[in-house]
Write a structure and sequence with these properties.
By secondary structure, this protein is an alpha/beta fold. It is built from eleven helices and nine strands. Helix 1 runs antiparallel to helix 6, helix 3 packs parallel to helix 6 and helix 7 runs parallel beside helix 9. Bound molecules: S-adenosylmethionine (SAM).
């Protein structure tokens, strides 16, 4: 990928997001502060700081599973999405381009499924706001209809409160978010119909669509739910497809996502079946169906401790073929 076709030059990233000498990411301050506020509001600091290297919680229906995931993984998930949009290492330019192009301005419908506490969508939006605040990106009015779909009531509540904390900063950079947080079970076709009906309503006057699927390999692969989820995901992708529609699928760079029997290999097979509404590599830039990148980031709650960010990411252009 040459400099000519990168929408954001990593050299222009502000120090508030990226230490280019040490190659370390830092979450946007507003996002880190919002996260800390909620961690303290729900007395989760001890749980957050008790995380060991072996812990990689994936969330779940009940409060204990949600709390562990929120307290121990939120900032890591946010850092992964930040690496995807900033392309700090120059390894994921086509992902960064698609996100920046979609979120440059006007009306956009973002569906984040499963959203958890909103780490992926809020990271993308607050990173763009930070880039706008540093005059790296133009401050065009950006009106977002955010649909967050998630099975855990507790996670949806965290997402709602995170957005309330972030709104003043986003609005100061002309990013206006109207959110609907919906109960969603990816294995249930009626629950999926409800989500799609809400998306269709949100899309009426919307010019662009971004579908974000982040960190779902733990549930889909490790819990063996790929087969049960496939019909619903097919429907979700088909309904999001159309002009100016793109999906970004973000996973941790682990075997469950990137090995020959991992999730991205399965998604690659699905995409062949979904060829009438999904295409990969339409920009002709690469042969790989997914890209990877790896850096470190300053954890929001333990700023003296660096943590690894291992990103694997797929860009799926939701282009229809007659
Ligand atoms: C690893 S988390 C990722 C959440 C979010 N995308 C992020 O990056 O932080 C996986 C999420 O899937 C949700 N989940 C578990 N089972 C689900 C199901 N059957 N349908 C939809 N979401 C589910 C969990 O509650 C959890 O929030």
């Amino acid at each position: 990928m040459t400099a000519a076709n990168r929408l954001l030059e990593p050299e222009r990233l502000p120090k508030t997001l990226w230490d280019s000498e040490k190659k370390i990411l830092r979450l946007p301050d507003a996002l880190a502060q919002a996260y800390e506020t909620l961690i303290d509001r729900y007395s989760l600091r001890e749980l957050a700081q008790s995380r060991t290297v072996g812990d990689s919680p994936v969330g779940g229906l009940d409060k204990a599973a949600t709390d562990k995931h929120f307290a121990q993984q939120f900032d890591n998930s946010a850092a992964r999405a930040q690496l995807a949009v900033t392309n700090s290492t120059k390894e994921v330019a086509r992902i960064s381009n698609a996100i920046l192009q979609t979120l440059s301005g006007n009306m956009v419908c973002i569906t984040d499924a499963p959203c958890g506490a909103g780490a992926a969508a809020f990271s993308l939006l607050s990173t763009i706001a930070e880039l706008r605040a540093h005059d790296v990106l133009p401050r065009m009015p950006l009106h977002i209809r955010l649909i967050g779909a998630e099975i855990s009531d507790f996670a949806r509540q965290y997402a709602k409160e995170m957005l309330a904390e972030l709104t003043p900063f986003l609005e100061s950079q002309a990013i206006f978010v109207q959110a609907e947080l919906l109960p969603w079970d990816v294995t249930d076709n009626l629950s999926n119909t409800d989500l799609i009906q809400n998306m269709v309503r949100a899309k009426t006057s919307i010019s662009k669509n971004l579908l974000v699927v982040a960190n779902f390999s733990g549930f889909l692969t490790t819990s063996g739910k790929q087969k049960d989820a496939q019909p619903q995901l097919a429907e979700l992708f088909r309904h999001t497809s159309g002009d100016e529609s793109v999906a970004i699928w973000i996973e941790p760079q682990m075997n469950s996502a990137v090995s020959g029997s991992g999730l991205f290999s399965t998604v690659g097979r699905w995409v062949k079946e979904w060829h009438r509404f999904v295409r990969v590599n339409t920009d002709g830039a690469v042969n790989d169906s997914f890209l990877t990148s790896e850096v470190q980031f300053w954890s929001a709650l333990t700023p003296d401790r660096l943590r690894p960010v291992r990103l694997a990411v797929m860009r799926l252009d939701l282009v229809r073929t007659p």
